[in-house]
Structure formats: C-alpha cells, structure tokens
Amino acid sequence: MTGNNLEVFTSSNALFEQMIHDIEEADSSCHMQFYIWQSGGRVDAVAQALCRAAKRGVTCRVLVDSIGSRSFIRSPQAEMMRSAGIKVLESLQAGLIKAFFARIDIRNHRKLVIIDGTIAYTGSQNMVDPAHFKQDEGVGRWVDIMLRIRGPVVESLAGTFCNDWFLETDTDHSKIRALKEDISRIRQIADVYPIEAKGNIAIQAVPSGPGLVPDAIHKLLITAIYSARKELIVTTPYFVPDDLLLTALKSASEKGVDVRLVLPKKNNSKLVHFASQAHFEDLMRAGVKIFLFTDGLLHAKTITIDGELTLLGSVNLDMRSFWLNFELTLLIYCHIFTEEIRNQQLTYQ
C-alpha cells in the first residue's frame, strides 16, 4: 500500500510523549497489543492517559500475552485500568492446567498500537520503560526502534489487532451472521476502515504465526536476503538461525554483497548468547562482518537491503519467531526512509 507517512522513534521518551499525546487526542478508540507490559516509569503515564480516555468515552482495549505480561495482568495497574473502563485481555492464556490442553509455547509477540483507526505504532519495543525494565540483568538499557504510521496501511494493522482481539473474546458483536454483515459490524466497532493517503511511502504489513501459512515469515526473510545485490545490514537481539538462513547469509556474502550482522555483546539469555556465537566462525569465513553492540541490549529488529528496502518489526532471527510466535513485520519500499534506518543501524556498529 502506497501513500503512507512514517516517523521513526529511537528515543523511548520521545515515543512515550507522542503516544500519550495521541491518546489524549483520541475520539473513538485506543487499541494496544504487547508481548510485555510492565508498570513503572513512563508506562504509568500511558496507563493514566488511557484511563482518562476511557472516562471520556473512548473505547480502550489492551491485549497482552499471558506469559510475557504475567506480572501485569493481576497487578494494581491492570486493576486500575479495568476500573476505569479499559478492557484488558490475556492473549493465548497459559497456566498449569492449560498446559494439558493447549500449546503454551505459542506466544503473541506483536507490538502494536492503533489510535482511532488512523494512527498506528509498531516496531520492537514492548510497553516498558527502558530506564526501569530488567535493569538487574546486567545488560544495560534495551535499545529499540518504533514507527508512528499514518496512511492506508493502518487499515491492515487495525485489522491485525481486530483479528487477535476477537479470537480471544466471546463477544456478541462477533457472533456468526451473514459474512458481509459480520465484517461490516466488526469494522465499525473496531475502527477498521480505508484511510486516505498521508504521504508517499509504500508499505506491506506482514502478520505471521502458526496458521495457514506457518512458514510465511521464514520464506520472506530468506527471499529478501537472496535479493540483496550490494549491501545487507541486519540487527537482531536473538540470532539462532537454521541452515537455510545461514546459507542465505553466507551465499549473499560470497557473491559480493556487503553483509553486516549487528548483535548485542551482552544478551539477557545465556543460551542464545552461546548459540549465536557458535555460528560466528562459519559466517566470518564466508565474509560476513559481525559487529557487537556494547551500549545496552540492542533489541531493534531491522534489515536494510541495497539502500532501497527495509524490513522492521517484532521478528527475531530465531526459530521461535519463525515458527511459534505471532509476529508483525513491515516491508517498507522507500530509499529515503531506508537511508534513515540504515544510518541508525550504522550507529550500532
């Protein structure tokens, strides 16, 4: 979809300020979906803004992963939000009893905010304040990239949230009627509708996860890597590739592409840390350049290709993101925007 406008946020403080402003200006709905929601710092200000919105009649829905946000779901902040009229829902409920009847290893890893069906945020950051989040793990602040999006692709992103929400809730609004009536009614109550152009950037939204095409994101990433002709820069916090991904990266380098892989030097998962390092020698022998980020835990998941194409979202380069998690990736076809992301990637090296 062309006609989109993008703003890049690499500062969590600037992100929270803009997001709170958009919530304060909301007229109809505020929808939020995160793998992790942790109270504290600027997150408390977001929660308070949502409460004020709900009290003035804005429909507020918050969808959080049952495992990633386990401490939040029964927290005082969640109770405060429910009391204000905000609908807080667990995604993919997990527990001891549930483990006997459902796959609790399948998680919803998406990060998505939709305001009034016209403004969207997505990227790599959870609803956490980096100044407070996991500061006892010895890896420093988490470093993320988020996008604020306006334009036609917001309809697809709003539809993604709508799909995840109504899969989890038993609402009268989504009872089976005539298909056309169902779609129209859900569009109305969830603010999913076509949006006029706000810019000139072409974006493709790619939700992925277990379903009809479970290997969609894996195939997309492999194809994107093989499409590189001059340069390929990848940033990811978790790098545990399979043979196909390793072969693609090595093949790109061996055919003359400048392949750069940027990973955090310190990781919050020791297992991932050592699993990643196990591939370094093989990759470097093929000419892949590996950079280790030292100023915190690099959590941004980005790929730029030949200065023309950007992939950005919630997907890590590991088997969980490829096969088990519900994820969201944006393919952004714009050399000006890609240059902005590429310049940010270079600061991590």
Automatic annotation (TrEMBL):
<keyword id="KW-1133">Transmembrane helix</keyword>
<dbReference type="GO" id="GO:0005886">
    <property type="term" value="C:plasma membrane"/>
</dbReference>
<keyword id="KW-0677">Repeat</keyword>
<keyword id="KW-0808">Transferase</keyword>
<dbReference type="InterPro" id="IPR001736">
    <property type="entry name" value="PLipase_D/transphosphatidylase"/>
</dbReference>
<dbReference type="Pfam" id="PF13091">
    <property type="entry name" value="PLDc_2"/>
</dbReference>
<dbReference type="GO" id="GO:0008808">
    <property type="term" value="F:cardiolipin synthase activity"/>
</dbReference>
<dbReference type="GO" id="GO:0032049">
    <property type="term" value="P:cardiolipin biosynthetic process"/>
</dbReference>
<keyword id="KW-1003">Cell membrane</keyword>
<dbReference type="InterPro" id="IPR025202">
    <property type="entry name" value="PLD-like_dom"/>
</dbReference>
<keyword id="KW-0472">Membrane</keyword>
<protein>
    <submittedName>
        <fullName>Uncharacterized protein</fullName>
    </submittedName>
</protein>
<keyword id="KW-0812">Transmembrane</keyword>
<dbReference type="InterPro" id="IPR022924">
    <property type="entry name" value="Cardiolipin_synthase"/>
</dbReference>
